[in-house]
Write a structure and sequence with these properties.
The structure is a single chain. By secondary structure, this protein is mainly α. The chain has one domain. 44% of the residues lie in helices and 6% in strands. A two-stranded antiparallel ribbon has the order 1-2. The chain is elongated, with a radius of gyration of 22 Å.
Length: 340
């Protein structure tokens, strides 16, 4: 049973499939729902501390109450088996709230759709979590769990923010084992990014710049609304910050791309080259948040090579538009949404 719970926390995500299909921004409602949970955490903190504990003790209690308010394991209604468990309370809300637009991939039309449980315990059985748009960033709902729950684990492992190295070691180990390569057969750099951002949030509670401060009476108050845009950027997007796979999973994903080459490359030519420089920036930045045990970043998808003809064609300047009234040869194409 413990293995099943750990495995369920190892959800992967897919921001490649249907990337150019518009997805409504859910940031406003997602921020508001988290604000509701945070308000309850603040209330419980003040009740428990009586507004009279030292800053460090108050921070620790506030961190605990935020984690308790947002991250209890919750079953997602409408999903079966392993796919229904392993979500924190807030992530489960993102998976079910009618006001949140999302890509669910329940038809298994995701990049891992051909995998079996034998190939990957989690990806073959539970599939992927949904993709949402938070402030223009496409990310899996699992990233909020990594921020709110694994970020809190970092906080505890680091002795409440006093030892970053301990947190980094623990996080890297989890991706190499129970939350990554051992269960989903993927090492997710984007997961570790969300872990680190969550840890930073918890360890800076009540400090200058935090949205949580103590008033003159020593009570905690939230001084500004929550905004996911302050904490998660496109490093949480697995198409821009892609994972590393075990050999079997990597081969299966590349084979799927080859089998769906026409559709995959038509989209990739539009968005892939545009994010190449950003990938380099993120890789350089995020290396500081892992240990030397992390696997090297490699091009697991091979899309630049697979889609080279389409990429080159996309670079060819379009011909000037014909003069008004001149006949146009051939059918006109519908506009393609511009990638972020």
């Amino acid at each position: 049973m413990l293995f099943l719970v750990l495995a369920a926390h190892a959800y992967e995500t897919d921001q490649v499939t249907s990337r150019l299909v518009p997805l409504a921004d859910a940031a406003a409602v997602a921020d508001a729902e988290l604000d509701r949970l945070l308000a309850e955490a603040v209330r419980r903190t003040n009740e428990a501390t009586g507004c009279g504990k030292p800053v460090r003790a108050t921070r620790a209690r506030l961190a605990t109450e935020i984690n308790r308010a947002t991250s209890p394991a919750t079953v997602v209604a409408g999903r079966e088996g392993l796919a229904a468990i392993g979500h924190g309370l807030y992530a489960a809300w993102l998976e079910t709230a009618p006001e949140v637009a999302r890509r669910t991939f329940r038809d298994r039309d995701d990049i891992y759709g051909d995998l079996t449980p034998r190939d990957s315990f989690v990806l073959g059985w539970a599939g992927v979590c949904s993709t949402v748009n938070l402030g223009g960033v496409l990310l899996g709902t699992d990233k909020t769990d990594h921020f709110l729950d694994q970020g809190y684990d970092y906080f505890l492992r680091s002795r409440e923010g006093r030892n970053d190295a301990r947190a980094i070691r623990w996080g890297t180990r989890t991706e190499l084992s129970a939350y990554g390569l051992l269960t989903s057969n993927a090492f997710s750099w984007a997961d570790l990014y969300a872990n680190w951002q969550g840890y930073t949030f918890y360890k800076t509670l009540l400090e200058a710049g935090s949205a949580f401060q103590r008033d003159e009476e020593g009570c905690v108050a939230q001084t500004r609304p929550w905004r996911w845009a302050e904490w998660l950027d496109d490093a949480a997007d697995e198409a821009i910050n892609p994972p590393v796979y075990t050999p079997d999973v990597g081969h299966a994903v590349r084979l799927r791309f080859q089998e769906h080459r026409s559709a995959v490359c038509a989209e990739y030519a539009a968005w892939g080259p545009a994010v190449a420089a950003r990938r380099v920036e993120i890789a350089a930045r995020e290396r500081a948040h892992v240990t030397d045990q992390a696997p090297p970043r490699v091009d697991e998808w091979g899309l630049d090579e697979l889609c080279a003809p389409e990429i080159e064609a996309a670079r060819v300047p379009a011909r000037p538009a014909p003069a008004r009234g001149a006949p146009v040869r051939g059918a006109s194409a519908e506009g393609v949404p511009v990638p972020r």
